[in-house]
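Input (Protein sey1):
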Amino acid sequence: MSERPSSLARTPTAPPIMANGHFASVGDSDDVTLYEHGVQVIDGDKEFNPNLSKYLSLEHVTNAGFNYHLISVFGSQSTGKSTLLNHLFGTQFSVMSESERRQTTKGIWLSKNKKQSDASTEGVRMADNILVMDVEGTDGRERGEDQDFERKSALFALATSEVLIVNIWEHQVGLYQGANMGLLKTVFEVNLQLFLKDKSTTHRSLLFFVIRDFIGTTPLKNLQKTLLEDLARLWSTISKPAGLENSTIHDYFDFQFYGLPHKGYQPEQFVTETHKLGLRFREGHRDPKRDPLQGEFSDSGVFLPEYHRRIPADGFSHYAEGIWDQIVNNKDLDLPTQQELLAQFRCDEILREVMIGFDEAITAFEDKQAESVRLGSPEVIGGLGVAMRGARTKTLKGFETEASRYHKGVYQRKKAELEGKVDTRLKALLHGQISAAHKSGIQDFREAVTSAVKSGQKKGGNYDFAEIVNKETKASLEKFEEVARSTVVEGTAWSNYKQELNLFEKELAEVSGRLRRDEMRRLATRVERWVQSRLGESVGLEFNSLGSGRAGNGAPENGDKPLETTFWDRVWNVFVETVLDAERRFTDRASSFDASLEEVDVGLWRLRRKSWGVLHAKIEEEMIEGNLLLKLRENFEDKFRYDEAGVPRIWRPTDDIEGIYTRARESTLTLIPLLSRFRLAETNAPPPLDRWIGHTPSSATPADEEDLAPIGGVDEDEGKTLDEEMTILSESKRQELTVRFKKAADGVYVEAKRSAIGGMTQVPLYFYGLLLALGWNEIVAVLRNPAYFLLLFVCAVGAYVTWQLNLWGPIIKMSEAASQQALVEGKRRLRDFLEQSDTGRQAIAMSTSDKTSSSGKQEEYEMSDLPKRSSGSKADDLDDL
Ligand SMILES: Nc1nc2c(ncn2[C@@H]2O[C@H](COP(=O)(O)OP(=O)(O)OP(=O)(O)O)[C@@H](O)[C@H]2O)c(=O)[nH]1
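Output:
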């Protein structure tokens, strides 16, 4: 290529200017000074220079969009075309040396206008970015008969340029070859082909005839007229496509003419005129309504929008290359297709460019989101919405700015493609963000409700669960909506979070349902504990009543029925009352949870079942052999040891101990069958447990039934009948109990009998006679001795006086108290003494253990050693619930 001095320098005819590096500038360096002669777009060997785009970007044309103009110059070889352009635009196209007459410009060169605005014309708007193409001269001896290149270059110039300067000498006007009529005929023909296919816009071009060496003898108007007549004739000779037979040359071309004086003979005028002409190109303002053929146009501008080929500057080099490729390969030049191809190419390029910016803005967020998902703790990313909206707007706007200048159809398609790409990624980010908000929202909600409940419990349990749930649900929904709203990209169909919001709301409801169930469970547990405590106390009292003879509720035995016969009725009543109370409390509290009727039903049903379990366990505890035996003994003792008035009996040998014993024993023995079955006295049947507990509610879940023990008569399928459920003591247990009770009663009987016999022991009378006979000597000795007699007499008088004064009682009491005190003090001193010596301590230990073991052995039979029951445990207060 030409930018290496190469192709042109290699040709034997290459001028020295090529060898001295003028052409070497192109493409090898980015330094704009190396492009002082412009860039060779097409070299002499018809090769296209791929560095054209580099030149345009160095000249700051690439980003100009449509704000640039392209002018080509045509004309015979060595007619001063390059000279003309250099004067008009300050370019530095190579010019033939005066001494030689040979081809200078090979191929097609392009340079940007280098002339700035004059001081005098300041304020006048300069035409933007004028690019000029210096086309190899026609009719040159170097190409000879080969007119291929000049036709191809004409076609290329027409496809790209707005204005074609036709450079002719005045004396050439009227000639055919000299006036380039052959070339112009080709231009007209290809113009018809080129722009016929693209009917979307009206393409016009300006043919600007610059008449060189214009003397002025023939007025310019006459020359203009001659040329136009020639051109009209030429137009009529070309074959036109169907439908355009009647078209005129003016349908496609505008014309302007300008005469320039001889450069050699009138150098000053030449400079002045080229300067004026240059200003028309650079600063002239063209009124599109003014017909340049009719009116004055010497001061008129040149460019009209309709001349523009509508190729954005950044796509120009690619477009030009495509066009040239078609031309050089003799393919049908189809401009719309080329424009479409260009649009596709450029839109793809622009799309890639804008996607780089998009990646920079978004990838970090995508990575962060992916990382948090990978770690299993999705996180709401701050500032995501702003970044998403900003990146999307910037990307689409950037694409629109650059790509909208290209073929509309392609642009729309590519825009949709870009939107698809951008939106797919943004949508994924939005979903990620919403899903993170969902997960963290649910977690936060659960934690908030739990901690509010806990703090409520700490403050004494006075909290409203439903209120907490409602408050936290509202807060969670607001937070979720805030995240979603701040992340959505307005104006996009996919930026919709309604469905996700519904899902979130649904899950919140599920979680609150679960939390409520947990809360209800906790409530149920508390109520059950309360029931357990109350039943433990009340049922314990009823069992104690068996021994005390008074009802557990404190009511004395009434005459109608023996207390024992209504025992189970009382237990059942206590149970029913307690459970009804618990149910009422449970229902009150559960309703404050906003629990559904079904949930409350299940809770109550569980409560009844559990309460029955508690009662059953309590009864079983009371009915263990030791406890029951104790109750029976107490009952027996009550009847045996006390009379009808409740006064303790002192047994005398004359009493009917056997009779009383037998009645008391038989009465107590009737208790055993009574206690062995839970039956109500009225109906003589078990209580209606199945009816009372009720059927399993349909809304009960397997989890609700999991921890419930089967109940006979209620859970029929468990194979245990109500009768079995209500049987407290088996037959064998009853018999065993009867035997043991009888033994214990016998023990009491024996003790009573023994105490009755012990009460009748006396000192026999003969013992007094014997005492007199044996002590007669001592009596006589005392009576005969005056001292003894006197002492006896004084004692007798003292005793008589004491008796008279009724002081014997106090004296005896005082002496008893004194002796008692002396005994206690003596014992204490002895213990202290023993504790201070080792042997003494051992002796104490041995005596204590002996005492314990001997009392254990006697426990079953010695009524006095039986442990006394506590009247009942302290019940928890249900108000604590
Ligand atoms: N008579 C006359 N000669 C001119 C004029 N302008 C330039 N020349 C001379 O014409 C010769 C060719 O000038 P170029 O500008 O190189 O001509 P060109 O048409 O660009 O030549 P190629 O690029 O080889 O086709 C030079 O020697 C110029 O001095 C003019 O207005 N009148």
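The first helix runs from residue 6 to 10.
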